[in-house]
């Protein structure tokens, strides 16, 4: 007899479906609650740079490029213009102070000198004539006064005699009055002559002073023209190397034109251009070091040029003690310029990441080294080797310090 076989509820197929559903639900719950949803990018480790954060001494310095220059450079400018008749020294030769370098010719200057000399000679003659005239007038005054004094004496004798005779009624009143008037006329004439001669003498003395002043100025002018003509001979103002001279025989030189320069070979300095970002921190006396032929030389800034050109400003540095042997004008070399005191800090090596993140975040390698994730950080000062870490990193952390330009906005790098 047939028996009804009841179908089992927990059969293999049902169990498989339930297990699959549980697994799917578990996966969905994990993805929603626990899975890493950050964007990722696979990166080959050998194509990036990974640097370790460490604690060490932070030296605040910058590296600038310095160019060797003579300690002093004297520019040769033409004091007067003219055309070159002789060129006695070529560029690149040593010259002694006072040595003739060029001879110039300028006919107009010579003509002006002769005219000035002629005017001075004329004034000398006029001054001599005025002084001679004054002497003659003094002699004439003495002669005139002498004649007047003689006439006055005669008139006075006649007047005194007639005055006595008049009392005795020997001479008439008219004769007496005539002698009196003659005596008084001569006395007044003498006073007038003295006043006239005094005026003429004062006038002559004024003329002499004016002529003397004019002559003095003219003689100064003559001396100036003489010195100007002497400047047609161009001489070395100091001993040194005539590093350049930019004229040839027959060429015309204008007044004030630069014709060359002389380098003082007693010492050298270095001139360096620095980014304007540091202009408030650079000042005379700031220390620096310069490496040459395996030796380090100490230097310091002696002058800061305030002009900023194309975002940079210049400084001059000199050696504190010995100048390196064999150094030459025009050589360039890096200079380490100290901006502050050394101190302990957490250090992150400099890298291309900064231009992409501005130092606000980095990729930090996680434990195991298989991935690197974004982390916000705060950086402080920077020197050519390290950034000063203020927050976000600890010694021992490993950071991707190469450029991030190919990583886009990915949050995690899968390192392969």
From TrEMBL:
<dbReference type="InterPro" id="IPR050465">
    <property type="entry name" value="UPF0194_transport"/>
</dbReference>
<keyword id="KW-1133">Transmembrane helix</keyword>
<keyword id="KW-0812">Transmembrane</keyword>
<feature type="transmembrane region" description="Helical">
    <location>
        <begin position="15"/>
        <end position="34"/>
    </location>
</feature>
<dbReference type="GO" id="GO:0022857">
    <property type="term" value="F:transmembrane transporter activity"/>
</dbReference>
<feature type="coiled-coil region">
    <location>
        <begin position="117"/>
        <end position="144"/>
    </location>
</feature>
<feature type="domain" description="Multidrug resistance protein MdtA-like C-terminal permuted SH3">
    <location>
        <begin position="345"/>
        <end position="402"/>
    </location>
</feature>
<dbReference type="InterPro" id="IPR058627">
    <property type="entry name" value="MdtA-like_C"/>
</dbReference>
<keyword id="KW-0175">Coiled coil</keyword>
<dbReference type="InterPro" id="IPR006143">
    <property type="entry name" value="RND_pump_MFP"/>
</dbReference>
<comment type="similarity">
    <text>Belongs to the membrane fusion protein (MFP) (TC 8.A.1) family.</text>
</comment>
<keyword id="KW-0472">Membrane</keyword>
<protein>
    <submittedName>
        <fullName>RND transporter</fullName>
    </submittedName>
</protein>
<dbReference type="GO" id="GO:0016020">
    <property type="term" value="C:membrane"/>
</dbReference>
<dbReference type="GO" id="GO:0030313">
    <property type="term" value="C:cell envelope"/>
</dbReference>
<feature type="coiled-coil region">
    <location>
        <begin position="176"/>
        <end position="235"/>
    </location>
</feature>
<dbReference type="Pfam" id="PF25967">
    <property type="entry name" value="RND-MFP_C"/>
</dbReference>
